[in-house]
Specification:
Strand content: under 5%
Number of strands: 0
Helix content: over 70%
Number of helices: 8
Distance between the termini: 61 Å
Structural class: mainly alpha
């Protein structure tokens, strides 16, 4: 048991062991790096496309808030109009959403490269167990994360309160 502990290992893994771990889908992953990449792509995307996106969305809002007389008298035309405005809004945001999609797929590959593992794709039926699921929900890790999120939102609330009091 002590041999398998990460603290007891003193030598580097052999190339065969690294290859075997890669075949099983056990590679280094970083949620923080993916989050950072998405955040930076959002900042750059909004910096580059923000003004045109804002103009398009303001135009859609103006169109949506202005109701012609014949449209007001025929309520069955409202739903198709809403549908067309929603499509326009989605098309206005599509380039930015496409950038997010690409970054969300590429960022995890920066650490380990492209990898498809059949073993990693196999379903783990022990994870379906509702009792173990409840144990994971109320584990120390999830309680620590919820505590952190609570502190974060409390700090945001304090900052916003201070800003609006000025």
């Amino acid at each position: 048991m002590a041999e398998e502990s990460d603290l007891e290992k003193t030598e580097e893994a052999t190339p065969r062991r690294l290859e075997k771990a890669r075949e099983e889908g056990q590679v280094a992953r970083s949620m923080e790096m993916t989050t950072f990449a998405l955040l930076m792509s959002a900042a750059v995307g909004l910096l580059l496309m923000g003004s045109s996106l804002m103009e398009q969305l303001v135009g859609i809002m103006r169109t949506g808030l202005y109701i012609e007389r014949e449209l007001a008298l025929q309520p069955d035309l409202m739903l198709p109009r809403l549908h067309s405005l929603m499509i326009e809004g989605l098309m206005a945001m599509a380039p930015l959403l496409f950038i997010f999609l690409v970054v969300a797929f590429v960022a995890p590959m920066l650490l380990s490269g492209w990898m498809v593992s059949a073993k990693a794709l196999m379903p783990k039926f022990d994870r379906i167990n509702p009792i173990k699921g409840l144990a994971r929900i109320f584990s120390m890790r999830s309680l620590e994360l919820s505590h952190f999120n609570g502190q974060f939102f409390h700090q945001v609330e304090n900052v916003l309160t201070c800003l609006f009091e000025l």
